[in-house]
Request: fold
Amino acid sequence: MAIATPTGFDKEAFKKEVKNNVRVLYRKNLDEASELQIFNAVCFAVKERIIEDWMATQKEYDKKDPKTVYYLSMEFLMGRAFGNNLINLQMYEDVAKALKEMGVNLNALEDQERDAALGNGGLGRLAACFLDSLATLGYSAYGCGIRYRYGMFKQAIRDGYQVEVPDNWLANGNPFELRRPEYAKEVKFGGYVAVDTDSTGRQHFHQEGYQSVKAIPFDMPIVGYGNRVVNTLRIWDAEPIECFQLDSFDQGDYRKAVEQENLARNIVEVLYPNDNHYAGKELRLKQQYFFISASVQEAVAKYMRSHDDIRKFHEKVTFQLNDTHPTVAIAELMRILMDDYKLTWDEAWEVTTKTCAYTNHTIMAEALEKWPIELFSRLLPRVYQIVEEINRRFVGEIAAKYPGNQEKIRKMAIIYDGQVKMAHLAICAGYSVNGVARLHTEILKNQELRDFYEMMPEKFNNKTNGITQRRFLLHGNPKLAKWVTAHIGDEWITDLSQMSKLKVYADDKKAQQEFMNIKYQNKVRLAEYILENNGIEVDPRSIFDVQVKRLHEYKRQFLNILHVMYLYNTLKANPGMDFYPRTFIFGAKAAAGYKNAKLTIKLINSVADVINNDASINNKIKVVFIEDYRVSNAEWIFAAADVSEQISTASKEASGTGNMKFMLNGALTLGTMDGANVEIVEEVGEDNAFIFGLSSQEVIDFENNGGYNPQEIFNNDADVRNVLMQLINGTYSADNPERFRDLYNSLLNTQCTSRADTYFILKDFRSYAEAQERVEKAYRDEKAWAKSAILNVACVGKFSSDRTIQEYVDEIWHLDKVKIPKKRASRAK
Reply:
C-alpha cells in the first residue's frame, strides 16, 4: 500500500495502513490501542516509505558505484528518529493532519519515543549531524558504531546529586532499525599469533587460542531531506558464537556455561564504561576493536562483492576516524589486507594510508588515548604486532629526518614509555588530519601536535564544525522556522547561507516584535516543561541564561554558578537595587567517575535550593538544573534561550556546536574567544555578542611560564573571597560544611594534584561578571536586543553541517553526488 504518490501524500492510504498496523501488530482497533502502540503502528507506516527509498538508494549506488565514506565513531547522538524522519521525508504536516483526523496528536506520539542512547556529547551529536548532511547532499555514506543497550546512563537527580541509572532505550523496541544477521562478523580477542612459512619463504600469521564474539549489524535509516536518499547508520550488537554450553552446565560449571554470552553482553552494555580501573580500560579497548573490526571486515567484503582488486580499495572507500577511538582501524585494515588477502606490507600500507583520515576533537592531552602495552598486546596480539611494525618504521623515518634527535622520537613515537599512543598512530597513517575550528587547528599545529605538523604539514587542515538546521530549527523551533520561511522562502532548509537575507529585517519594528513574540512563546513552552519536571516556576519574561553541555572543569559550569552566588549576595546586600530578573538554566551529564564534575552538579542544585526558596529576593533569580539533558529536550532549550553560555577556558574547547545551535535560534553568545566562538563573533560582529576573559595565547603563556596566583585574587577581592568562603562555611551545605571543600581546593589549595585554578576561573571572574552586566543592560533595550538576535540568525549560514561536509568532500574524501530518480508511479494499493 502506498502512502506517498508521485504528486504527494496519500492521506487515506496512510490512515488505512496505520489502522491495519494496529490490528496486525496488537490485535486491536485504533480506539483500543495505547499511544505507544499507535506510535509503533505509525512508525511502521512511515518505515514503508523509507524502505522504498532505501532500496532505491542502494540500487542507484550499486549502479553508479560511487566512492563511500565510512564514518567510524564510538558515538552517534541521534535523538529521536520519528519526527526527524517525517521532516526529511517532507511528510510532517501531512502526517500531523492525517493523525488529527484520526483523533491522534502527533506531538504526543513523538513523546513516546526514547532518545536513542548511542552517544553522550558533542562528538556524537556532530556525527549525527554529519550523517544527516551526507544524506541530504546525496553522498554515499555509512555511519558505523555500537548498539549500546543502555547508553552511557540516564541521569537522575536525587537530593541534588547525579545518579546514573540504566537508559533502557530499547525496552519497547526500535521500530526503524533492521537486524542484518546475513552480514554478521566474528571478532577475536586474546590468544596468541601463530606463524607459518610457505614454500616461497613468506610468513603467514593467524590468531590461535582466542575468544570471539559474533558482531550482528542493525541498520538504521538516515533520511536525506527531500531527495529520496536514505543512507545507513550501522550499529553492531554482540552475540556469543555459542549461546549456551550445555556440557559445562551439566558438569556443574555454570559460570563457564554462560561465559561466551557474558563476554558478548558486556561489550555492548554501556557507552564509556568507567575506566578508573583496569577492567574498565580493558572493556573500552574491547568495545573499540569490536565495532572497528566488524565495520572494516564488512567494508572490505562489500567492496569485494563488486570489485576484484583489493589494491584499489582506497579508490572506492575512505574511513573517517572520529577522534582517536576508532584508530585501531588502521592496524585492522592492515591485518585484513595482509593476512586475508595476502598483500605484502608495502602494498597494504599503500592502501591503508590512502584510506584512513583522522579528525582530532580535543586539545586536552588526557583525552588523546593511550593504552598500556601489556593490555593492548594481550587483548589484540596480531594487531599489536602490526602497530609495533608501523612504529618501528615510523621511528626510522623520524631518525632519518632528525638525526640524533631522541627528543623528537620521544614526542612522536607511537609506542613509547610502555604505552600505545593512538593519536600518533592516526597521524602517522592517516592521509588527512583535521581540527574542527580554525583556532583549534592552529593550536594543534603550533602547540599540541607541532612536531607532527613540522614533519608532515601537508596532512593538516581545518574543517570548522557545523549543525543540521533541519533538526535544530525546522523540527526544534517550528514557529521560528515558519517565520523565517515567510520572510525569505524555504531554501534555507538545504542552504543555510540563505539566512543572510534576514539582515534587512533586523531593524524592522514589525519583524522585531514578531521575532520576540516567538521567543516568548518558546520560553513559555520551556517554562511549562521546567514546572512539570522540576517543580520550579520560572518567569518567561526573565532573561533565560543557559549553559547546557557535557560537564567538564574546562567548560566552567563552576564559574557560572559562582557568579550566580555572587549575584545572589549582591541582591541580598542591596534588596532595593534595580535588577532585571534572571533564570539560570543548566543541563549536563558528568562522567560516572569524574568526582569534581559530579560535585559541581550537587553545588548547582544546592545553590538552586537556597535561592529558589528565598522569598526575600522576590523571584529575581531562579536556578534550574534540567535532569537528563539530551537531544529531545535540547531542541526546546535552544529555542527558548536568550543567552548562550560558551565560557570554556580559552584554548581548551576544540569547537563546540551548542554555540551554533543557540545562534541558529536567536540567542546571543556570552563567551570567551575559544573554539568556534571566534568564528561566530567574526560572522555576527562583537556588538552582537558578549566576549570576556583571557585570550588563548594568554592562557597558554600562563601555563608555560607561570605568573598566575589565584591566592592574590582571593586576598584582594572581597566579593570573590565571600563567594569562595560560602563553599566551605555551610551556606549551601548546612548539614555538611565540608561538602564542597574539594571544589574550593581546586581553586586555591596547592595540595591538589594539579595547579591551583587550572582553568583560570578566578582570573576570568571579574571579566565574566562585567560581561553579565552588559547582558542585563542590553536586554533592557528590547529593540536593540531583537536586532542582535535577528542578526545572529541571519549570520549563522557558515555553521551548517552541510557546509562542513561539502568541505570534507571537496578537500579530503572526494566523493561523487548520486541522485535518486523520482518515482514514476505509485505502487498498487
Q: What stands out?
A: The longest helix spans residues 35-64.
